């Protein structure tokens, strides 16, 4: 399914015309799902390009500031299905936390597609599910949202509980940094200029390297898992590994770290998993939630998403 600035019919006509034009010149025709002509940096001059092919496991988005390419992968020997998104940005486009209800951001929840559609989010994954720890009055980890400290309480040095509450700091310039759970205080992150700080963990990659001792200690079992990583500012990956169903048993944090390392990421953090793990494109969930035979079954309700990009047009709604 393809959409564009002038509507579905207009863009289909434009693409068909462009294909004929290039073919007449002896150049390649525009194939299904291929990006239209871009500038020297790989972005559109104006408008939006949206493509989805769930049967083939391919989704694409392109605008003047955002480029998203998503592919579903499968390793039948390992009984693993995962979906990986590669994201390029420019001109201030960045990942940020998106609440269902800003004035009650840790108290009001909705299904992830609802949050994505109501906020016009191009691409999103689940976040650290911090609202649950806050509601249950257990240590939430160091949390910052939109430059405001939500929590200063993190694990103690001798804690062995999962998640270990390692952090991912998001900066206004598009930079990301990962830190151990007790490496900095909340005020330190504000002094660094962090706009959002998530707490879950463990760290999957730091300076391109894995700490296999930590990864063996936290999340060594196979489950549905989501992570986000960065190659460099403006170039990111998000990966969601399915689990708890016949086609995919899930993945360990070590296995997830290896996927991010293979993509060239310098850093990555493990986010919440299990029935919370999800990935959304243009307001639609594009992965299968474990323990469900229905392709339309959604991840559990949440207070926030980690997302990027804004659009005034999302895809058709799934059942809420």
Describe this structure in words.
This protein has six helices and 19 strands. It is an alpha+beta fold and about 325 residues long. Strands 1-2-3-4-5-15-14-16-13 form a nine-stranded antiparallel beta sheet. It has a five-stranded antiparallel beta sheet with strand order 6-19-7-17-18, covered by helices on one side. It has a three-stranded antiparallel beta sheet with strand order 11-10-12, with no helix packed on it. It is globular and about 55 Å long. The protein starts with a strand and ends in a 10-residue tail after the last strand. The N terminus is likely disordered.
Helix and strand arrangement:
Elements: E1 2-3, H1 8-24, E2 49-53, E3 58-62, E4 66-75, E5 80-89, E6 96-99, H2 112-118, E7 121-125, H3 130-135, E8 143-145, E9 148-151, E10 166-170, E11 176-179, H4 186-192, E12 196-200, E13 203-205, H5 212-217, E14 225-232, E15 235-241, H6 253-262, E16 267-270, E17 279-281, E18 284-285, E19 304-310
Antiparallel strand pairs: 1-2, 2-3, 3-4, 4-5, 5-15, 6-19, 7-17, 7-19, 8-9, 10-11, 10-12, 13-16, 14-15, 14-16, 17-18
Brief account:
This protein has 6 helices and 19 strands.
Low-confidence stretches: 1-28
Q: Give the SSE order as H and E letters.
A: EHEEEEEHEHEEEEHEEHEEHEEEE
Number of helices: 6
Separation of termini? 22 Å
Radius of gyration using CA atoms only: 20 Å
The coarse silhouette is globular
Return the average pLDDT rounded to an integer. Answer: 90
Structural class: alpha+beta
DSSP summary, beta strand count: 19
Largest sheet: 9 strands, antiparallel
% residues in beta strands: 25-35%
Strands in their spatial order, largest beta sheet: 1-2-3-4-5-15-14-16-13
Helical residues, percent:
10-25%
């Amino acid at each position: 399914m393809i959409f564009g600035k002038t509507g579905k019919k207009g863009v289909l006509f434009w693409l068909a015309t462009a294909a004929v034009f290039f073919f007449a010149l002896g150049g390649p025709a525009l194939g299904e799902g291929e990006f239209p002509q871009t500038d020297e940096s790989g972005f559109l001059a104006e408008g939006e390009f949206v493509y989805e092919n769930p049967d083939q496991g391919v989704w694409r988005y392109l605008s003047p500031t955002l480029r998203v390419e998503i592919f579903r992968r499968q390793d039948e020997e390992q009984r693993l299905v995962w979906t990986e998104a590669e994201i390029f940005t420019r001109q201030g486009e960045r990942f940020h936390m998106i609440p269902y209800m800003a004035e009650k951001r840790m108290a009001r929840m909705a299904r992830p597609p609802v949050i994505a559609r109501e906020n016009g989010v191009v691409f999103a994954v689940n976040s650290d599910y911090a609202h649950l720890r806050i509601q249950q009055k257990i240590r939430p980890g160091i949390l910052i949202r939109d430059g405001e400290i939500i929590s200063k309480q993190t694990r103690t040095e001798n804690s062995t509980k999962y998640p270990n509450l390692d952090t991912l700091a998001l900066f206004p310039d598009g930079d990301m940094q990962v830190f151990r759970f007790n490496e900095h205080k909340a005020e330190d992150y504000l002094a660094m200029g962090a706009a959002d700080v998530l707490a879950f963990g463990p760290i999957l990659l730091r300076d391109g390297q894995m700490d296999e001792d930590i990864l063996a200690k936290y999340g060594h079992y196979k489950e549905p898992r989501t992570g986000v990583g960065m190659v460099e500012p403006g170039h990111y990956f998000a990966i969601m590994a399915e689990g708890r169903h016949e086609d995919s048993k899930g993945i360990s944090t070590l296995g997830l770290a290896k996927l991010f390392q293979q993509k060239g990421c310098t850093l990555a953090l493990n986010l919440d998993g299990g029935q919370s793990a999800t990935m959304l494109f243009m307001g639609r969930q594009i992965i299968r939630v474990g323990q469900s035979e229905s392709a339309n079954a959604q991840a559990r309700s949440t207070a926030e998403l980690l997302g990027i990009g804004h659009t005034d047009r999302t895809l058709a709604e799934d059942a809420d």
